[in-house]
Amino acid sequence: MSVAAIILAAGKGTRMRSKRAKVLHELGGEPMIARAIRAVAALEPEPIVIVVGHQAREVEAAVGFSKARFALQEPQRGTGDAARCGLSQVPASFTGDVFIAYGDMPAITPVTLRAFLDAHRKRGAKLSFISIILDDPAAYGRVIRDGGGEVEKIVEFRDASPAERAIKEINTGFYLVDAAILRSALAELKPGNAQDEYYLTDIVAIARARNAKVEAWVAANPAQFAGINSREELANMETEIRAAVNRRLMQSGVTLVDPPTAYISEQAEIAPDCVIGPNVQIIGTCKLGEGVRIDGTAWLSNVTIGPRCHLKLGVRAEDCSIGEESEIGPFANLRAGTELAGHNRIGNFVETKKARLGRGTKASHLSYLGDATIGADTNIGCGVITVNYDGYDKHQTVIGDRCMVGCDTQMVAPVKVGNDVFVASGTTIVRDVSDGSLVLSHHPQREKAGWMATWRKRHGQR
Ligand code: UD1
Ligand code: CA
Question: Which of 12, 122, 235, 260 could pair covalently with 54 via S-S, beta carbons 3.0-4.6 A apart?
Answer without folding.
Answer: 12
